[in-house]
Specification:
The protein is α+β, with helices and mostly antiparallel strands and about 160 residues long. Helices cover about 15% and strands about 30% of the residues. The chain contains three helices and seven strands. The strands form two sheets. The chain has a five-stranded mixed barrel with strand order 1-5-2-6-7. A two-stranded antiparallel ribbon has the order 3-4. The protein is globular and about 40 Å long. The termini are far apart. Catalyzes the formation of 5-oxo-L-proline from L-gamma-glutamyl-L-epsilon-lysine. Belongs to the gamma-glutamylcyclotransferase family.
Amino acid sequence: MARVFVYGTLKKGQPNYKHMINTAKGLAKFQGRGRTVEKYPLVIAGKYNIPYMLNIPGTGHHVAGEIYSVDEQMLQFLDEFEGCPDMYQRTLMRIQVVEWEGKGSMGEARAAAESVLECFVYSTATYPPEWVGLPYYDSYDSSGKHGLSYVLRESR
């Protein structure tokens, strides 16, 4: 099993969460919520209003998201879904655990909630330079105040 941190449309309540719970694509088990240890720019870009974490450590915000344990089949699905390695690149990042739901005792959960984990994150180093000038967010919600609703693939 691998740990994956999702910050955009794959989170609970977001337009692509259905893929995370589709066992035909593999297994993804919600572990908890976290945020990036380093700051990154999270932007909403392109004509489909897609959230992108730009791989520019030290710029932007500590990005909030969810931590999942995924099997190899789900990891392969996510690579394909995220257009890896062209659109996004899957890299290891340090994620601060904010809330932990993983199995174990209460003491273990409390210790986990104060820890830092290495998780795979789909960020991008291949973006148009003007994206650096877009507004940066610390958390993504497709129906947020920004008014930039994500356009589902089936609607493009």
